[in-house]
Amino acid sequence: MTKKTLLIIGFIFLFFFINYFPHLYGWIKTSPDKFFSGHVSWFDPWDINNYLAAIRWGQNTKHFLYENLFTTEITKPFPIYFIYTLTGIVLPSVNLALLYHGLSMITGPFLLWIIFRNILYFISNRTTAFFTLFLVCFGGGFGGLDISMTGLTFTGIWQKPHEIIALGLFLESLIGFTRLNNKTSVYKRWLLRVTLVISLILYPFKIINYAIITGSWILLSWRTSDRVTLIKEWLVSLVFSAIILFSYTNKFSQSGFFSLLLNRYEAVNFIDVLIGYGFIIPLLIIGFIINPRINKLQQWLIVWITTTLILTAFPFGWSRLYLSGLFFPLSLLTLIKLEILMKQQRLIMVIFVFILIPLSTYFIFYQRINAVNQTDNSWMYMSKKKQLGLKFIETQKADGVLANYILSNQVSKLTGKHVYLGHLIQTPKAEEKYEKLMRFYQKEMNDNEACMFLRGNKINIIVFEDSEIQKKYSQSCLSKQYENSEIVVFQVR
């Protein structure tokens, strides 16, 4: 077996081990009295449960269009998370977690291929290209990878199949634009347009940085014979995408998922961004010092990076989401500028690329493994008795479940039923509903008010657990249907 083959096998093993082994470890370490949620998530388990619920929807209803299960309001179904609903339709009897992680492990190599393919477009040296691939896949910072900095590197992206696909298609359409010339076939042009549209359907806001970044390539190519071709393709792609996106977002705003459009993320702190990217920032600066010459492709990468950073500073509710995928051009430009150092100081580059820059990725892996031993983590493990209660709910014809937030977030994936409040972003008016939910469970509503609250919100099943059971909550409109030492299920009469 050659050294190159061993290197490829080692990389693939490390990729799957770091990203997906914690889920397997969590399942293996599940104690007999616990039920495993199906994932060991370091960042946003509530989102993973949402995607699992979409798979369950496909399995139960055989419908491609997904109805918002995180509200009891009557809503219109919509083709959102279609990769998950389709998976559920095709494989109706397979375990949800197996399907979800299987999708990640299939789509992950797809994105790896796109990344490496495009790295070779910029870098001809295979060793430098491999270093770049490793950096893109495992690179991190000094700890900026936290709840306030979604999408800073690829660490979280590898866990979400729809993001993997969206980012892969976006990178392909963006870099593919720079390959266009007068000889490019109509077929390839339409393929790029369709690729762009699919990626923008998942993340519509990226049409702005696509327009700016590809527009900059036109300016950089202004003196070439391809100028007219690029301008025409730029206009056609944007108009084609805009028409489809307008129709899509218009329908989206009328669906049960409109609250996603209203979500506002925290503004980006530029210092957090620098900290989040860590050692790669000083390395890039060093690269420009030792190799100041910049060719056309490098100029374009600089525009890509600066455009993205500028867009994150705008007061849009989604601004920080532009950071998703930025680690690719940043890593690419860094290794291009340090190619001389790669030849002269290989050991130093190995230490930076394989040890120092990925430190936060290694630390997150450690955190995920360590979290498995914390069996009191409600996002990861549920008692078997609570699971039995949810199995009972699954058998009931009635829909519309009220439970505490963490349990509600898991009810939909385990029962396929709608919940009053299950996701702080996807549930419409989530903050208002959370306050009402707390008032109900803290007995701040009188009998009549509580019954009106339940009926008015189409809630037919109420779940009490742990301390709530001890309060002996009893309304005239409630009828006990199931009980064990950890969970009680009532039905609204």
Automatic annotation (TrEMBL):
The chain crosses the membrane at residues 7-28, 129-152, 200-222, 234-250, 270-290, 297-316, 347-366. Keywords: Membrane, Transmembrane, Transmembrane helix. This is Glycosyltransferase RgtA/B/C/D-like domain-containing protein. It comes from Candidatus Roizmanbacteria bacterium CG01_land_8_20_14_3_00_33_9. The lineage of its organism: Bacteria, Candidatus Roizmaniibacteriota.
